[in-house]
Amino acid sequence: MFMVNKLKVPGLTITATRLRHYFRNMDSKELQPPSCVRRMQLLQREQFRKSIQVPRLLMPETHVQRVMPLVKKFLLKMEHLHPVRAVDTSREILLHPTPVKDWESLPTEALQKQEITAENFSFSELELGYENWSANEILKSVLPLEEEGLTSYSRIGHIAHLNLRDHLLPYKQLIGQVLHDKLPNCRTVVNKASTIDNTYRNFQLELICGDPDYQVETKENGVPFEFDFSKVYWNPRLSTEHERIVKLLQTGDVLYDVFAGVGPFSVPAARKRCDVLANDLNPVSFHWLQHNAKRNKCLPQIKMFNKDGRQFILEELREDLLKRLLNTDTTSYAIHITMNLPAMAVEFLDAFRGLYKAEDLSKLPSSVTYPTVHVYSFAKGDNTKELVRQLVESNLGASLDENLLQGISFVRNVAPNKDMYRVSFRLSQQLLTTPKEVELSRKRCAEEEEEELVAATKVKCV
Question: Coil, strand, or helix at residue 313?
């Protein structure tokens, strides 16, 4: 929980968090890196050195403990800089130049009660260097002002993963070096070299700084994972979505994970003692899926397959689901199907149409609970939510009106005008026993009959 306070400073009203960093250093010209570093493409750390004058309070060491609470909100805070420094036998407290312009900027009455007067106030010379600025501050001072800067990057274990826009490519070596220097435990910086367009949907990576070591260990929502980032798909921006689905599951529920990857849905579900059938086409992902299931000690709860998603639905899912529908009380647990391959998952939805013959499910009670499908999809355009619905309905060959459960949920923005959504809907006996082609044929016939009826009515009216 963060405490937000309002600070009152002559000429300023500033919102602060936890009595820390009330004043942004980059808003003060004195505290910005030298202007000569702008558009630097090869990192030259010595070019960041500069000497400035900052306000300070100089006092005996015995006074520091009593004075600090009075000036805490005015302290100068920068990387690798302690605001209290020894000067001979005395101590100086460095203050931020934005709120402190002179002695009167400080709580003078309270300071005077502690025997601190205007005589203790002065300006001190301070040497700043590359080490005193954060990665964000360094990059803001270097990259072109007229273009969008580095807005985000991902951390996966010891790897920093970038997706640089074209205008930043001339600065990629510098960006990589700065992140390598500044991010804790960062040993490898990579840039996404191409879009995800191959069969196994892993990134093509370009090493821009550090060691070519792509085997990582990371945690997501408290669950440890290990994998080779260069050969599998992993996106830490999906951690909230993974957690959201796993929280829907209770002990004893069933999860069919059609595009499981290294297990961000399947492994946490198995840890909750759900029955999991997990599948992925990529043999490397399948290897790490097995590894992560073993590492998390949930192998008894999970069966894993290395197949095409459609084949998995038509074989393993079909057989296992039929046994559960026929032989167990499905009202006592929930069944979920996750399909997280947003570039093409909707194209697999037709595999559920006619998955069974009508007689296979004819003896099921009306109370039977059919699976909930969570399918993910991208959409690009103005009304992306409606586009996603159309994509799902077109590939499923049916309207979602009756079966739509949690609606169409926004997951994240992927690019300008390109969004990712989750569509959650429930399968039904009709969907599972009626081929898509038959459904569409019936729909066309119904539309033709309606058109004929309208035409006949018009003739009678004439």
Answer: helix
